[in-house]
Predict the structure.
Amino acid sequence: MKKECFFCHTKTVEKLIQKFNPADSVAEEFLRSVNRLFDQEWDSSNPYLATKIHRMAKEKLNIANLYEEEKLNANKQLLKHNNYWRTLVNDSSDPFRMAAKLAVIGNVVDYGAHSLNGDDVAEQIKSLIHNALKIDDTGELHERIKNAESVLYIGDNAGEIVLDKLFIEVMNHSNVTFAVRGYPVINDITEEDAKQTGIDRLCKVISNGYDAPSTLLDHCSDEFLDAYNNAGVIIAKGQGNFEGLMDEKNEKLFFLLMAKCKPIAGMLGVNKGDMLVKKAV
């Protein structure tokens, strides 16, 4: 684990303690548990460590869904502006690219270590619309989707799922499967979030069967793995999914994300805050 990643995990823990303000004894036991985790599994992947930390938080704080209110609010905010997003896409000279870009911009919705500053999610998204994609493989993605028998879209966060839904509508593909997390973790989407936004009426929704804020194939359900292995195109949204799948040498795989930290930005050859649509190989 890089030092920056350590600080990111500790910031997450600090934010959780500040958010729920548990008794000192509870907070101290949570901190001791996290420190033991770092001692025992320092070399584990960041998504795996994040999974363990949030499991500890749910257990120690006795809260099953740590960001339930924030997720519902993010979904409501972006749905409220749905006509605006749709107009942006319809009025664009390249609706597919605009819809893909909006889906990437939606990745700014984050309540983990890289959390939003302020509550007006929609306005933050609007402020980024004129920023260019630093890496732009949308043309190839579009062609792959046109020729694919099936598309697997691996979702990320609540709120941004509204823009994922719009992108899937613009794809206009008859066989899209949308994957969500198996259980609540940070503000990542679950089947409940999918139903709130109506994406389950647009395409098939499946759970990956696991509670990582990422996609860790060794832990995913058979249903998810079947969809993953047989998809003609795979779209993985967000930095968390990138961290879980970045070593996959899969020509069908495309990443849509915002680089939210310097280590990941450096790995991708971009700057922190840059947005990209990037094929895996």
